[in-house]
Amino acid sequence: VVEYMKHILESDPKLSPHKCDQINNCLLLLRNILHIPESHAHFLMPRLQSGGGHQVSMQNTILWNLFIQSIDKLLLYLMTCPQRSLWGVTMVQLIALIYKDQHVSTLQKLLNLWFEASLSESSDDNESNTTPPKQASGDSSPMLTSDPTSDSSDNGSGGKKESC
C-alpha cells in the first residue's frame, strides 16, 4: 500500500481528484488495519515468534513493516501537499493509532534526542549561513526516495519546495 501511494505521488506532480481519493483510501485502509484490536488479530494470524523466543504482536509487526517502507517520510510528504486537506483527518487518525501504545514521556525523550541531534547536525553541516543550500536533482520527490536509514529531517530537498 505504501509503495502504491509512492507510485501515485511520483507519477504526476499534479494530483487529480481521483488520485487524491486513491491516496485517502490507502490511508483509510492502513488506519482500519491498525484499528483492529490485538485480541481479534490472533484469529486472523497467530503471534509471531522472534529470534529471542518471545512473541511479537501482529500490530507491532505491521508497524515495523510500515516503517521499513518509510511510512514516516511519506506522511511528512503528504502533510506538505496542497491537497493535504483531503486526507488530513485520516492522517491524524493513522498517526494516533501508530503511537497509541507509547507513553508521552518516552515520546518526549525521543523527540528531544532527535531535536538535539538535528540541531548539532545542522550546525556542523552549515557553519556559515551565507552559503546557499544544495539543490536537489528535482526528478523525483526526495521524501519518497530517500535512504531508509536516514532520519526524516534529512529529506534532501535543500530548501526547495516540492509540489504534489
TrEMBL record:
Compositionally biased residues, Low complexity: 139-154
UniProt GO BP: DNA repair; DNA replication checkpoint signaling; entrainment of circadian clock; replication fork arrest
InterPro entries found in the cross-reference section: Timeless, Timeless_N
GO CC, alphabetical: replication fork protection complex
GO molecular function: DNA binding
Positions of the Timeless N-terminal domain: 2-150
Ranges in coiled-coil conformation: none
Region (Disordered): 121-164
TM spans (from-to): none
Keywords: Nucleus
Origin superkingdom: Eukaryota
Compartments (UniProt record): Nucleus
Protein name: Timeless protein
Organism, as annotated: Drosophila americana
Name of the coding gene: tim
